Amino acid sequence: MIEKFLITRVIHNIIYNSVLHNEKGCTIRINLFKKDTNVIVEIKDNGQGASPEKIAELNELSFKNIDISKIRTTGIGLKISKQIVDLHQGSISFASVQNEFFESIISLPIFNITN
């Protein structure tokens, strides 16, 4: 079952990340579509992107070595989003090319939505 509040939090975290880490004027595009028995949400910005090392770190589910004094740059919001999606039996992946884009792709199984 999809918990609407938590999935809303995931989407908020991703959009907030784009706004926080990019200059004014960055475009954020959201695509939503059904694929087989899943709902796909693609969120992509045309901002500064992230390094390959940061993408590899984000695609792992790990909270090791998080410096709380640098909480706005650790990616913890995206890691929490990954945990939420995993709890919903879905998947989330991150891709990027530095100085070109950052993209998050969420795949969730279609269930009934609850409040």
TrEMBL record:
The keyword Kinase applies. The keyword DNA-binding does not apply. GO terms for molecular function: phosphorelay sensor kinase activity. Gene3D superfamilies: Histidine kinase-like ATPase, C-terminal domain. Pfam families: HATPase_c. SUPFAM superfamilies: ATPase domain of HSP90 chaperone/DNA topoisomerase II/histidine kinase (SSF55874). Keywords: Kinase, Phosphoprotein, Transferase, Two-component regulatory system. This is histidine kinase. Residues 1-112 form the Histidine kinase domain. It catalyses: ATP + protein L-histidine = ADP + protein N-phospho-L-histidine. InterPro entries: HATPase_C_sf, HATPase_dom, His_kinase_dom, Sig_transdc_His_kin-like_C. Its EC number is 2.7.13.3.
